[in-house]
Design goal:
By secondary structure, this protein is an alpha+beta fold. It has helices at about 1-15, 20-25, 25-45, 135-140, and strands at about 60-65, 80-85, 90-95, 105-110, 115-125, 130-135, 155, 160. Helix 1 (about 1-15) packs antiparallel against helix 3.
């Protein structure tokens, strides 16, 4: 590859018209010609890696999947949200239907832009703070001796699925989590 780039640079320099002697056109013209030749030569290899439209291609979306652990024999209808940690106006969601079986229903949110997210559960009809989340309390095994209800950041990479994210912390104080995103 270096050999090809070197040949392109050599050809560009060899085919570039020579500037007239400095006394005929002035030193400024000779400097400008050299500068534009170097700029053209350094951007040529990069141009081969840009799509033909010249626009940057968006990163492939990812996904998050796991279970919802609602503390009851059945689970109400709810929506699981993946909310960006840097811009709360960026979020992705999936509905989980009301049911009894399975005890911990699965969810999968697809089409997620690469980034870092927190996961929250909002019961249908609740526009206030989230009812549940994926937090440090979940990682502690939902043990009463663990009082940390801090949401855990989940990083989604292009084209990848983050698995086994359990939205099961329905034990935090009522205002511990943010309101439903809009």
């Amino acid at each position: 590859m270096k050999l090809i780039i070197g040949a392109i640079l050599l050809a560009a320099v060899a085919c570039t018209p020579r500037a007239a002697a400095p006394e005929a056109t002035g030193a400024a013209t000779a400097t400008a010609t050299a500068t534009s030749t170097v700029a053209a030569a350094t951007t040529t290899p990069a141009a081969t890696t840009v799509p033909s439209t010249g626009a940057a291609q968006p990163a492939a979306p990812g996904a998050i999947s796991g279970l919802v652990g609602y503390p009851s024999d059945g689970h109400p209808a709810m929506t699981i949200y993946a909310v960006s940690t840097t811009d709360r106006s960026v979020f992705f969601s999936v509905n989980v239907a009301r049911g009894i079986e399975p005890a911990k229903p699965p969810y999968s949110i697809s089409g997620i832009r690469p980034g870092t997210y927190n996961l929250f559960a909002y019961l249908d009809g609740n526009d206030g703070p989230a009812n549940g989340a994926y937090t440090e309390y979940v990682k502690c095994g939902l043990n009463a001796s663990c009082a940390d209800h801090t949401p855990i950041n989940v990083t989604v990479r292009a084209g990848e699925t983050v698995r086994d994210i359990e939205v099961s912390d329905f034990y935090a104080r009522p205002d511990a989590f943010p309101s439903r995103p809009r």
